[in-house]
Amino acid sequence: MSINQFFRMLWARRILIGVTTAAAVFMALFVSWVMPPRYEATSRVMLDIVKPDPVTGEVIASQWARAYVKTQIELIRDYRVAGKAADEAGWLESAELAEEYRKSGAADDMDFRRWLAQRIIDNTDAQLVAGSNILEITYSSTSPEPAAKLADLVRDAYVDQTLSFRREAAARNAEWFEEQTDEIREQLTAAQERKTAFERENGVILTDDLVDTDTARLRALASSPPPIASQTIAGGAVAPSSGQLAQIDAAIAGASRTLGPNHPDLQQLRNQRAALQSAVARETAAQPRLVNSGPSLGALYSAQQAKVLENAGAAGEARRLATDVLVLRDQYQKTAARAAELEQEAQSNESGLTLLGDAIAPQTRSFPRYPAIFSVALAAGFALAIFLSLMLEFLWRRVRVVDDLKLLDTPILGAMSEPTNKNARQIFELPWRKREAVAQ
């Protein structure tokens, strides 16, 4: 079908097209006039998704922001939010709504509060304002004032429910962490008791860095400078203060690696050494037959090494018990700190939402908008009229001009020209069943 044939067909069906288009426009306007008007009020909240949480310090990752916003939109349309809004609106005490509820026949499927909540859900919509983190809550009603009131009530109920969810989740987690803290505390107490009992039974004492005293002395002897030689009395007797002086030197050498030069403990060891050195000098003066043949540093180191090897098993077990204590103490501190944080979060009033003012009663209706309805109905009616005209044309085809015969691939013997006298003009319409015979 060429464009000329198409417009020729439309002109032939102009009455049908005009009537169909007018009927569509009339029906659309009539239905819009019969239906009750609708007013939409909006209330806004700002989602604090770009700032860290003031309690936990957590920030929502950018890849989860869209899922977070979608969750908040679904929460606004949740029964708990809508039910709370219905309670605040006083709908449960409305006799008119109760009568409407009985007439609706919904009593078999849901209770009155659920029915009211579903009514709010059906009229509520929410969406994120493009290019921002502002969530816009829209409520539709037949009157401007109720629309604004319900929009604010839904927003307030949403904020309260969000805060309630955060508090409930934090309280549950805090309770679990407190239980874990109590269990770890019991385990830590038992581990400390085992460690203390083992050290008491085996005479093993560990320092803060899990080193037993014998090993510490051995390390001190290995790293200490050569002490003053022990002096013995002729006949093999050792000077009384000579061995103590060697031990003090070893202790000073070991303490110098971990303590500052002015530390009180190091100063005390130095004072003890000075006193022992004076005692050794006095003993040497009182016994003229003293000779420098006392035990050397190597002998003291060998004796201490043998003692360390002898107690290696006990020291290793004590070190294992001390490690268990340290691990449990670290777990206890972390668990107790997390329980305190969650307890603080459970008492927080921070919902992560910022209110942006109350809704304003709309001045214009969102439905019906007659110019838009007229335009849409006109376009839809015209499209429907063209469709009907095409259907009629294909079902009952008419030959109006010679070009219409070309669609049938039929030989044309001749054509009669249109009479110049309008009074004598006659239009011959050839039915489909006679087309072939006439053409031949």
Write a compact overview of the structure shown.
It comes from Qipengyuania gelatinilytica. Among the domains are: 213-310, no CATH class; 397-440, no CATH class.
Question: What is the chain-wise order of helices and strands?
Answer: HHEHHHHEEHHEEHHEHHEHHH
* Shape designation: elongated
What is the average of the pLDDT values?
79
**C-alpha end-to-end distance:** 23 Å
Poorly predicted parts: 227-238, 289-293, 424-440
What is the overall number of helices?
A: 15
Report the biggest beta sheet as strand number plus sense, adding barrel if it closes.
4 strands, antiparallel
In helices, the fraction of residues equals 55-70%
Spatially, the strands of the biggest sheet line up as: 2-3-1-7
Give the tally of β-strands: 7
Compute the CA-based radius of gyration.
Answer: 50 Å
- Residue share in β-strands: 5-15%
Structural class: alpha+beta
